[in-house]
UniProtKB/TrEMBL annotation:
Organism phylogeny: Eukaryota, Metazoa, Chordata, Craniata, Vertebrata
Protein name (database record): Tetraspanin
A GO molecular-function descriptor: lipid binding
Entry superkingdom: Eukaryota
Disulfide bond entries: 147-179, 148-168
Subcellular location as annotated: Basolateral cell membrane; Membrane
Keyword annotations of the record: Adaptive immunity, Cell membrane, Disulfide bond, Immunity, Lipid-binding, Membrane, Transmembrane, Transmembrane helix
Organism, as annotated: Oncorhynchus tshawytscha (Chinook salmon)
């Protein structure tokens, strides 16, 4: 049972981190916003759902390794090793892909925010319902991130001239961080935490692959079997 215990632990860590990311108040409240039939970018949520699946699979594979160790079955241990290799390869591929596209999630959400912002302050937009919907989405961004406006000129002054200060937090001031910076900061923190968890899991998986192969070879060379 010692053989696969860390894999179950690693699977639990991945599953726990993924569930936390999925239900974190800041990310979930922003990524579930809609405006004019357009959903906020779902790339981050899709990635989190994949992490949830990986964590669950790792826990199942961990039980397989435990059972194989108890039964001293070369077949089960070999299957356990093969599953770990596949999961490890997927994790490395996902890590490389994530590192190469680590800024795309924040850029997508910033583009969504800017679209809503432009509709909210547009003087040519006559559809009041659409303007109010845009203002409501902006207010959700501002209250969640404690920011106001975007990173162009002075965000607070821009909103003052448009008469939209009611969508900003009451503590807002001219020196308040713009929402572009806050969005980047939010997702950079999440990516950093995911990276730490992935590194820990990778180390555990390397140890488990080595240990399972040693155990499998030991069973094969045992005179009893």
């Amino acid at each position: 049972m010692v053989c696969a215990g860390p894999v179950k632990l690693a699977g639990g860590v991945v599953l726990g981190v993924a569930l936390w990311l999925r239900h974190d108040g800041h990310t979930s409240s922003l990524l579930e916003l809609k405006f004019d039939g357009q959903q906020a970018p779902t790339t981050f949520l899709n990635s989190v759902h994949i992490l949830i699946a990986v964590g669950a699979v790792m826990m199942v594979v961990g039980f397989l390794g435990c059972y194989g160790a108890i039964q001293e079955s070369q077949c089960l241990l070999g299957t356990f090793f093969a599953c770990l290799v596949i999961l490890f390869a997927c994790e490395v591929a996902a890590g490389i892909f994530g590192f190469m596209h680590k800024d795309s999630i924040s850029k997508e959400l910033i583009t969504f925010y800017d679209n809503v912002y432009d509709n909210s302050v547009a003087t040519t937009l006559t559809d009041q319902d659409k303007k109010q919907a845009a203002a409501a989405v902006l207010k959700a961004f501002h209250e969640t991130l404690e920011c106001c406006g975007r990173g162009i000129s002075n965000p607070f002054t821009t909103l003052v001239t448009q008469g939209l200060t009611d969508i900003c937090p009451k503590s807002v001031s001219a020196s308040t961080t713009d929402c572009h910076g806050k969005i980047r900061e939010l997702f950079n923190e999440k990516v950093y935490l995911i990276g730490i968890a992935a590194l820990i899991v990778a180390i555990i998986m390397i140890f488990e692959m080595t240990f399972s192969m040693v155990l499998c070879c030991g069973i094969r060379n045992s005179p009893v079997y």
